[in-house]
Design goal:
The protein is mostly helical. The protein is built from three helices and no strands.
Length: 75
């Protein structure tokens, strides 16, 4: 995500992670939701965050797990 808007913008678009964060925060605020945004390149940190969400009784968790998938294009 730290390369969002930079890496292959013709595929992934030109919106930066900071811009996306702001759009999400604005939308959540308009709907009365609390939003916490977390990025990591570490699988362990990701798992820790999922477990924390469980213990904190978080209502929803949205995750881009592309990092953990393999595809012929990126193998």
């Amino acid at each position: 995500m730290n390369l969002l808007g930079i890496r292959e913008p013709e595929i992934y678009g030109r919106t930066s992670a900071a811009e996306l964060n702001q759009m999400l925060a604005d939308y959540a605020r308009s709907k009365g939701f609390a939003l916490e945004i977390f990025y990591t390149n570490s699988e362990g940190e990701c798992v820790d965050r999922i477990i924390k969400a469980y213990h904190d009784k978080v209502d929803a968790l949205v995750m881009n797990r592309r990092l953990y998938l393999r595809s012929p294009r990126h193998s």
